[in-house]
Specification:
Blueprint: E1 10-12, E2 18-20, E3 33-34, E4 43-49, H1 53-61, E5 69-74, E6 79-83, E7 86-90, H2 92-95, E8 98-102
Antiparallel strand pairs: 1-2, 3-8, 4-5, 4-8, 5-6, 6-7
Length: 110
C-alpha cells in the first residue's frame, strides 16, 4: 500500500489552489478549511464542529470533537476518516460543517 508524503507547508484542497504558510516558521494563524475539501491521506486536527446541536453532540460521542486528530482515508462516495483507530464514514454535506487545520509532520499520528 502506498502512502503519500505530505508537507505541512503546503496544504492542498480539492477543487482549489495549494495554500502555503507565510514563512518557514509556519502560519501565524493556521489555515482552516472544511473537512470536505481536504485531500484523502491528509492528517488534520478538528477546530470547530458547526452542525446542528443534536448532530454535533452525536459527532462528539463518536470522537469527532474539537482538537481531535483525524486522518481522511477516502473521499468516495462518502468521506471515510480514521478517528481514534476506528473508521467512520460521513457525508460530504456533514463534512462541510467540520472545520479542520493541517497537522505539522512532527506531530502526526497515523
Amino acid at each position: 500500500m502506498l502512502q503519500l508524503s505530505l508537507n505541512y507547508r503546503s496544504f492542498a484542497i480539492v477543487n482549489g489552489p495549494f495554500y502555503t504558510c507565510a514563512d518557514e516558521n509556519g502560519c501565524p494563524q493556521p489555515f482552516v478549511c472544511p473537512l470536505s475539501r481536504v485531500i484523502a491521506g491528509t492528517a488534520v486536527r478538528i477546530k470547530k464542529v458547526g452542525a446542528s446541536r443534536e448532530v454535533t453532540h452525536r459527532l462528539r460521542e463518536l470522537g469527532l470533537c474539537e482538537e481531535q486528530k483525524i486522518k481522511l482515508l477516502s473521499r468516495r462516495p462518502n468521506l471515510i476518516c480514521l478517528v481514534c483507530n476506528a473508521r467512520l464514514a460521513i457525508s460530504s454535506q456533514l463534512a462541510e460543517t467540520i472545520l479542520v487545520e493541517p497537522i505539522p509532520a512532527t506531530t502526526r499520528a497515523d
